[in-house]
Amino acid sequence: MIIHNIMNNNSFENLCKLLKNNNIEDASNLIDYMNEWDVMYDKYILELVDKYSNIYSNNSHLYYRHSLFTYNSYEVVLIYWCPYSHSRVHFHPLKGCIMKVLKGYLDIDLYDSSDYSTIQHISSKIIQDGQVEYIKGKHGIHRISNDNNCDYAISLHIYVHNK
Domain 2-160 maps to which CATH number in 3.90.226.10, 3.40.50.150, 2.30.30.280, 2.60.120.10? Predict the structure, then answer.
């Protein structure tokens, strides 16, 4: 474990430094960082996962957002997904959102609104522990849900808002 920590410098603390010290124009620029970040060695994130797992373990059909860090146009949010919870259908700013599943799995339903008068479901996919997803603008209209009936899921989202 010590060797892994030396080799993998990606952590929540370093993420905050990265966002403060660099002009990241789009959330897609964080894909490599998020893929390499092994959150199972990040003490701060593990403590939050444990804390929220104890607080929300008996709730259902709801999800809870916790803003962990905000700086300029960046926001880092931890989301706890109770069984059968889901977001509304939505899209993100043109600079996008990147998310990583920390525990469990989440379903992502993608929609098309090319005619701007209706939205149509076009595809679904499942992302699970450790996987990263990038969604951007109106071409990324989506809904996230935890369709697991007996376990929660947790995800970390980084939003890059338009300035």
Answer: 2.60.120.10
